[in-house]
Amino acid sequence: MNITEVKLRAIFRKSKGSKIAIIGDVMLDKYVYGTISRISPEAPVSVVDIDKTEIKLGGAANVANNIKALEAEPVLIGVIGNDYDSKHYIDVMRAQGLSTIGIIKDPKRPTTAKTRVIAHAQHVLRIDSEVKDDISAATRKKMLQFFKKNIKKFAAVILQDYNKGVLTKEMIYEVISVCKKNSKPVYVDPKFHNFFDYKDVTVFKPNRKETADILAMKIDGENSVKTAGRKLMEKLNCEYLVLTRGEKGMMLFDKEKNKTVILDIPTKARRVADVSGAGDTVISTIAVMLAGGASIIEAVMLANQAAGIVCEEVGIIPIYKQALIDSYKRK
Fold first, then answer.
1. What is the model's pLDDT at position 305?
2. Of these residues, 51, 106, 280, 326, which one is catalytic?
3. Domain of 229, in residue numbers
4. Measuring CA to CA, which residue among 75, 78, 98 is closest to residue 19?
């Protein structure tokens, strides 16, 4: 299916400013760049002399970045601590023009932070600061109060799970229930825990590894992908399943008139430099395109195009509206 540039621009015009809620695990990504010229006299480890430090938003916040870059309006609902990293987190959100109104501070939890040390263009160390326990009932209540108060403003809701404790079984059930009552679409990017609690959603987007792990089956060819996809559709009763397959593209499963319609979509990346963040790009693009009136097939094809663009760059970068339009024009 081809989408004309005229139609693509019309989709973007309609989606512009649409409020899309993102509920999930937010993170702070810190990159420490330096050089190694000696071994420590204290222990047999390298000494990194720091040249520069970069602080970026990760996890569900990267989805918010993508949605903003596509000119819709993200409303991020997540949890941070009341610590040194939380100040950095809020500062970066504000610097990038993201609203912090849905961010809840829990002084009993640290802000999830990943610090990567890179020397001579090589990743030499990663330091994680996090707690993976489920959030407290009090914190969950605050998040749900904000969500329910604003539900009518949202064009769609994304559940972005990294298994860091925000999307508990109770949270998942409550959010999906509220969305059903208010006829709001729900798009899910799952992880292993609570995988089968995301029932009756609009779009469920696992990757190949997550699917193979949860079904305890080997997925190595087109037939096994189709078998796995049908099993997930049956278990989850989702309207659409988008199974991402890395360099092999995606497969869309559409439960139409009690029959599963399958569309195979090959990758659009001309050269793969880095797949980091591609999943965030896919779910973000699908949400924005559907908010703009695209069909599910059009939304997934455009998300596939967007993933191809970001995979050609090193590092986690958002997909920008003009970049997607330009890429589509070059097809």
1. 84
2. 280
3. 5-26+71-80+132-329
4. 75
